[in-house]
Design a protein that fits this description.
The complex is a heterodimer. Chain A is α/β, with parallel strands linked by helices. Chain A is about 65% helix and about 5% strand. In chain A, helix 19 (about 340-345) links the parallel strand 1 and strand 2. Chain A starts with a helix and ends with a strand. The model of chain A has no long low-confidence stretch (mean pLDDT about 90). By secondary structure, chain B is of the alpha/beta class. In chain B, the strands form 2 sheets. Chain B has a 7-stranded mixed sheet with strand order 3-2-1-4-6-5-7. A 4-stranded antiparallel sheet of chain B has the order 8-9-10-11. The termini of chain B are far apart. The mean pLDDT of chain B is about 90. The chains are: A alpha/beta, B alpha/beta. Chains A and B meet through helix 9, helix 11, helix 12 and strand 2 of A and helix 9, helix 11 and strand 8 of B.
Chain lengths: ~400, ~325
């Protein structure tokens, strides 16, 4: 009964994290997955997410599902540390639940938290026991599903490799189970050349940054992943683990973050850090209480400096106003914009091109408006940059 | 040697009767391990007193509660090659221990004192409890790979070597440790059963309550899931290869239709120009385009106006020679 109560409290916490993200509105990357826009990630998760995109509560529903998956996955960690003293168990759970990355990411509909969760499952299996097992097929199935959820799952390849090598299957079969999913992912990439192009574009973004800037940005993401203290102790544990699965995955995640230094990748570090801490805890005493306290303090300081709630995009508001103004036809947007505009309404969204003005139903200027609006156009409400055809 | 585990909670009055009774019966090398969950009636203290007279060891658990985990903790420190467990409330007949011990010595992996074997009985239980026990037993009987007529019995012995092989896999929650052990033993394990008649309780009260029943339900569900996974585990590798083949069959024609992109650098730049031009002319977002195929004179794309609800999707051919966009010709 105590476990049921704990699960209910955890669910309330998950709900809180999901609600926190509601205030941010749907961001461009989230809209990409909710609308099943085929770049850059493979189709499994986004196809499922978009299967209910006509439902008004789609966004809220998936936020709750994502937050629930991440929060309730603490049970995996608790199973890993069930033989440790209660204080250590509580702090390990606390570090997962109250770390910066979790608070910022758990309620977002992004692929990074989902990949972190998959990583946690692989690391759980890796640390659970050293015995030879006969679950190679299940692991390979989860491996292929993870890869077709998001490319980043490949970062946990070393952990998967060790898990498969530990199985009772023959060596050639182990190789097949490991490499076939990777080969299929490569094939998928070739079947969707614009995914390849979008990844190349992403890789060249901020290419002019100096090495020092790159390292500092990566360090920030590394620190966020474990609220500083856990990052340090976890990295120490990983390096001391002598586990190819753990060290290899950590190195791949670190290299990836060095390339793409977005804060939302911090959560990819979190399961690795916790695995590192657990490795240390199994061998020797660690002052877990200070680690837990400092983790929570770091999260609070981070939250105070950078609140997890920021003003939402104007897309939703503008789309509502256009709906009130009975706009129909295509909406042209002048300036740089994200997929949240496509998600916010039912109008077809196009980039502004002067030759399309004649057939458009509405125009939004996110950059300076071109001086072409004549008597056939009227401003919408008090918004100087939104026009609808009369 | 026989290692007998006596899990206790508020059995201070029963132990001084039980241990001498056991000593009378056990004319074999043995040790008795009392595992007490820090009983409020100080059972552990009574057990420590008995240590002075009998080969008894006491494990007092201050932070743990639960019969199953007490048994597992007891087994962990036991030294015998036959591990046995029985209730401490004088409801189990100590003479049966010898039969259980002998069965293990004769090669059985596990020996169970069963209330539902011919000659056995639940004794003086009231009808409600009798029915509940029967129903629970029926429910639990078909689950483990090693079948027992009484998988909920609290009186059994197990070969220590057989136990060691499964010890790390056990989830000792609730009261039904035998069910847990049976669920993890390999199907070819040898089982022996001895009839057991429950004796009336002399002191103390039954520990059966709603929480115990809830734990039992959860245990049954967990074992059912585990058994289901074991049952279908033979399918895991075929399932993987079937899924891989399906994905391959879906992707290969698509990649083949785009082979020119990867074999001809000139074609790549022509396709890129055509896509960029068409997107600029029509105000399309490139992310709304999905390339379907590439030939020497055109590139076929799907244009999907991504939006909430049903999308509007159009199949279009972009000419690589004249920049003309036309609907797909089948």
């Amino acid at each position: 009964m105590r476990k049921v109560m704990l699960a209910l409290w955890l669910e309330l916490y998950a709900l809180f994290l999901a609600v926190l993200q509601i205030f941010n509105g749907v961001r461009t990357d989230e809209a990409k997955y909710l609308l099943n826009i085929p770049y850059p990630h493979p189709p499994l998760a986004r196809a499922i997410l978009s299967s209910i995109d006509g439902w008004s509560y789609q966004e809220f529903f998936w936020r709750i599902v994502f937050a629930t998956l991440l929060v309730q996955s603490v049970w995996l960690l608790l199973r890993l540390v069930h033989d440790l003293r209660p204080a250590a168990r509580i702090v390990v759970a606390m570090c997962w639940l109250l770390g910066c990355a979790m608070v910022y990411q758990a309620g977002t509909i992004m692929m990074a938290p989902l990949t972190a969760l998959e990583g946690l499952v692989f690391l759980y299996l890796l640390l659970r026991d050293d015995e030879r097992h006969d679950n190679a097929g299940w692991i390979a199935l989860f491996w292929i599903l993870s890869l077709f959820t998001a490319y980043q799952a490949v970062l946990f390849a070393p952990a998967v490799w060790v898990l498969l090598r530990r199985s009772k299957s023959s060596a050639p079969l182990q190789m097949l189970l490991f490499f076939i999913p990777l080969a299929l992912l490569a094939l998928y990439t070739f079947s969707n050349p614009l995914a390849l192009a979008s990844m190349t574009l992403q890789a060249h973004k901020n290419a002019d940054d100096t090495v020092v800037m790159r390292i500092l940005d990566s360090l920030r993401v590394w620190a966020l992943g474990g609220s500083v203290v856990l990052s340090i102790v976890g990295t120490y544990g990983i390096l001391r683990s002598r586990s190819f699965g753990l060290i290899g995955s950590f190195v791949l995640v670190a290299l990836y973050v060095l390339l793409a230094r977005y804060d939302y990748y911090a959560i990819l570090f979190t399961p690795l850090f916790l695995a590192g801490v657990i490795v240390v805890l199994r061998r020797r005493f660690l002052p877990m209480l200070p680690i837990g306290v400092f983790t929570v303090i770091a999260t609070i300081v981070q939250l105070a400096l950078y609140p997890p709630v920021s003003p939402p995009s104007t897309a939703s508001f503008v789309m509502q106003e256009l709906s009130v103004a009975h706009a129909s036809g295509a909406l042209l947007i002048n300036g740089s914009f994200g997929h949240e505009w496509e998600y916010a309404g039912t109008l077809e969204v196009k980039r502004y091109e002067p030759q399309l003005l004649q057939t458009a139903g509405a125009v939004v200027c996110l950059a300076v408006c071109p001086p072409v609006f004549d008597q056939y156009w009227t401003q919408v409400g008090s918004m100087p940059d939104v026009f609808v055809r009369k | 040697m026989l290692s007998l585990i006596l899990p206790t909670y508020n059995e201070a009055k029963n132990l001084p009767e039980l241990i001498p009774a056991l000593e009378k019966v056990l004319a074999i090398p043995h040790e008795i391990i009392v595992v007490d969950d820090d009983s409020p009636d100080r059972t552990w203290e009574v057990a420590e007193e008995l240590c002075k007279q009998y080969p008894v060891r006491v494990l007092r658990r201050r932070n743990h509660r639960g019969l199953s985990s007490a048994v597992v903790d007891g087994f962990a420190i036991a030294q015998g090659n036959v591990l046995a467990v029985m209730d401490s409330d004088l409801q189990h007949d100590p003479h049966i221990l010898l039969d259980l011990y002998q069965a293990i010595q004769n090669g059985a992996d596990i020996a169970v004192a069963s209330r539902y074997r011919e000659g056995g009985s639940v004794g003086e239980w009231v009808t409600g409890r009798r029915l509940l026990s029967k129903a629970g037993t029926r429910l639990a009987q078909w689950l483990p790979p090693v079948h027992s007529s009484d998988p909920m019995s609290g009186f059994f012995a197990v070969n220590s070597a057989s136990y060691d092989r499964i010890a790390t896999k056990l989830r000792p929650t609730g009261f039904k440790i035998l069910l847990e052990v049976l669920a993890h033993l390999p199907p070819q394990s040898r089982i022996f059963e001895v009839p057991l008649t429950f004796l009336p309780r002399k002191h103390g009260e039954s520990k059966l309550n709603l929480k115990v029943e809830w734990d039992f339900v959860l245990q049954i569900l967990r074992i059912a899931v585990m058994r289901f996974a074991q049952t279908i585990s033979f399918a895991q590798i075929p399932l993987f290869f079937v899924l891989s083949l399906i994905i391959l069959a879906m992707l290969l024609p698509k990649v083949w239709a785009m082979r020119l992109l990867y074999t001809d650098a000139h074609m790549r730049s022509r396709v890129q120009s055509a896509l960029t031009h068409a997107a600029d002319q029509n105000g399309w977002l490139v992310s709304d385009l999905l390339v379907q195929s590439v030939t020497t004179d055109h590139v076929r794309v799907l244009h999907d106006e991504h939006r909430r609800g049903p999308d509007v999707v159009a199949c279009l051919d972009l000419s690589l020679t004249s920049s003309v966009v036309t609907p797909c010709v089948k």
